[in-house]
Design brief:
Length: about 210
C-alpha cells in the first residue's frame, strides 16, 4: 500500500470512529459512572470486538453469515434487543445523592463485566461484518500478499479506535465533575437511555 493510499485509509477510519455510535456512548457512560480505569475495559472490549469482526470478514465467515438472511436477522435483532435493554437499564439507573465534595464514582460494576458487556454489543452487530467487507477491498492490492496488508489495515483501525475511545473516556471523567446533583445525574442517565433505545430501534428496523 502506498503512503498516499494509507493516509486516505487513516483519514477514513478517523472520520468513521469519531462519529457517535454504541461504543462511543458505552465508553462515555462508563467513564462518567466508573472512572477512566474501568472505562479502559470498555475500550478494550470494543477493540477486541472489532478485531474479531475484521478476522471473520477477512476469512469469509462474514460473507457466509450475511448470505444467510435468517442468521443475519437473528444476530441483528439480538443486538437490537441488547441495546434496548441497556437503554432501559440506563433510564432506570438511580443517581447518587447530592455530593458536596464532588462526584463519586460507582463501584457496582467490575472491569471484566464492563469488558464483556462492550464485547457483546460489538459482536451483536452483524453490520460490522458488512462494513469491513466493504471497506477493506478498497485499500487492498490483489497483486500483493494479503496477510501483510490486512495486518496493516486491522492494526491501524484498532489503534485509532483505542485512541478515540480513550479521548471519549477522558472527556467523560471531566463531565462527571459536573454531575454532582441528582437532577444532573438523572438527566444524563435518561439521555444515555434514550440514545441506546434509539440505536437499538434503528438497528432493528434498518
Amino acid at each position: 500500500m502506498s503512503t498516499e493510499l494509507y493516509l486516505v485509509y487513516l483519514a477514513t477510519v478517523v472520520i468513521l470512529l469519531v462519529a457517535p455510535g454504541p461504543m462511543t456512548l458505552l465508553t462515555l457512560s462508563t467513564s462518567v459512572r466508573h472512572g477512566h480505569k474501568k472505562a479502559l475495559a470498555t475500550v478494550l472490549g470494543s477493540n477486541l470486538a472489532g478485531l474479531v469482526l475484521m478476522l471473520l470478514s477477512a476469512t469469509g465467515v462474514g460473507a457466509l453469515i450475511t448470505s444467510s438472511p435468517a442468521l443475519f436477522e437473528l444476530l441483528q435483532y439480538g443486538g437490537a434487543a441488547y441495546l434496548l435493554w441497556l437503554g432501559i437499564s440506563a433510564w432506570r439507573s438511580r443517581p447518587e445523592e447530592n455530593l458536596e465534595s464532588g462526584f463519586r464514582y460507582r463501584d457496582d460494576a467490575t472491569a471484566f463485566g464492563l469488558f464483556r458487556q462492550t464485547l457483546m454489543v460489538g459482536l451483536a452487530n452483524p453490520k460490522g461484518l458488512i462494513f469491513f467487507a466493504a471497506l477493506f477491498p478498497q485499500f487492498l492490492n490483489p497483486a500483493k500478499p494479503m496477510v501483510p496488508q490486512l495486518l496493516v489495515l486491522c492494526s491501524t483501525f484498532t489503534a485509532v479506535d483505542f485512541i478515540v475511545l480513550n479521548l471519549v473516556a477522558f472527556g467523560g471523567c471531566q463531565l462527571a465533575n459536573r454531575l454532582c446533583s441528582t437532577t444532573a445525574q438523572k438527566r444524563f442517565n435518561r439521555l444515555c437511555g434514550l440514545t441506546f433505545i434509539g440505536l437499538g430501534g434503528a438497528m432493528a428496523i434498518a
